[in-house]
Automatic annotation (TrEMBL):
It is an enzyme of class 2 (transferase). Signal peptide: none annotated. The modification N6-(pyridoxal phosphate)lysine is found at residue 206. The keyword rRNA-binding does not apply. This is Histidinol-phosphate aminotransferase.
Length: 352
């Protein structure tokens, strides 16, 4: 490190993205969709190319309207961002500091503690319950702002909106990160009609097949959206490019393709869960596009390495509570059958 780096960043631990290797791996490590963007998204994206010489609309008016229409809110309730990570960053920048922490689950999305450190907020967490579900009572009873993914990142477990409603009864912010909600969980969106202290964060990376487009959004009361725009316009007004916005509009409009893809992922998840359990694996109940599982005879890191040797890439976390497990993104049915076959070969001791 140079002498110019500010002291507050020395020893800083940034977020570590999943591997993006080149080569012929079956890639089941970063929770991407196995399906390409919809044809509607492709056409609108291509049409936007000829106008890339011009700045995009910083208000993302067209996309905000499409999102608002799709989710039954007003455009003034929508903030479009460069990936949902940027929405989370704006939330931390606007509402967290040394005296205003966000409490998160101990095991959840790895960016939450990073954002806390970035804005100088205390890192506060609650452990998960023994079944890897979020301890809803701990979040309901605390007085701090709270943030959690639902379904939860890394585990796939989910929280019913009745429990979220209980959290909202206190005068603090409740941020629900719904990156994986489209794969079988219940959205907290209906609660927006009653509670103005709720922020819902969404991404088009998973269920809308646009991970490479970096498109996210937040839905909240118009006053909160205005406050988040204060941060946005102080940081990066033209945050979402014209072509990405066009692709997002197409992806949201193509509801038939969206439903077809999510149904296929759910079907492949159910197949994978049952097949893995039949091999003796422990599998955590999931409503996301991934499964957290462990082998009775092998550590998670060893299993990840052995799968990689066989051309299948999965995610492993060395953090306490997760080190025994691997996290497996749900790909196409063909990919999941290959994964199960390789898992079977490993467990049976078959050589390659």
């Amino acid at each position: 490190m140079t002498k110019f780096l500010l002291d507050k960043y020395k020893g800083f631990e940034p977020y570590v993205p999943g591997e993006q290797p080149q080569g012929g791996y079956i890639k089941l490590n970063t929770n991407e969709s196995p399906f390409p963007p919809s044809e509607t998204a492709r056409k609108l994206y291509t049409a936007a190319f000829d106008r890339l010489n011009l700045y995009n609309d910083p208000e993302n008016t067209a996309l905000c309207k499409v999102i608002a229409d799709r989710y039954g809110v007003s455009p003034e309730n929508v903030l479009v961002t460069n990936g949902s990570d940027e929405a989370l960053a704006f939330i931390y920048m606007a509402y967290a500091d040394e005296t205003h922490p966000f409490v998160a689950p101990e095991i959840s999305y790895g960016f939450y503690p990073v954002f806390s450190a970035l804005v100088g907020a205390e890192k506060k967490t609650f452990p998960l319950k023994s079944d890897y579900y979020i301890d809803e009572a701990a979040f309901i009873n605390c007085d701090d702002n709270v943030i959690f993914a639902n379904p939860n990142a890394q585990t796939g477990t989910f929280m019913p909106i009745g429990q979220i409603a209980e959290m909202l009864k206190k005068p603090r912010l409740v941020v629900v990160d719904e990156a994986y909600v489209d794969f079988g969980a219940e959205s907290a969106l209906p609660l927006l009609k009653e509670y103005d202290n709720l922020i819902i964060v969404r991404t088009l990376s998973k269920s809308r097949s646009l991970a490479g487009g970096r498109i996210g959004f937040a839905i909240a009361a118009k006053e909160i959206v205005s406050e988040l725009k204060l941060v946005k316009y102080s940081f990066n007004p033209y945050n979402l490019g014209r072509a990405a916005e066009a692709a997002a509009i197409g992806a949201i409009q193509d509801e038939e393709y969206f439903r077809k893809c999510t149904a296929a992922v759910i079907g492949a998840r159910e197949y994978t869960e049952q097949a893995a359990k039949a091999l003796g694996m422990t599998v955590i109940d999931s409503r996301a596009n991934f499964l957290l599982m462990k082998c009775p005879t092998m550590d998670g890191g060893e299993l990840k390495a052995e799968l990689m040797r066989r051309g299948v890439l999965v995610r492993h976390f060395s953090t306490p509570g997760l080190s025994e497990y691997i996290r497996v993104t749900i790909g196409s049915m063909e990919q999941m059958k290959t994964f199960i076959q390789e898992l079977k070969n490993i467990i049976s001791g078959a050589r390659i």
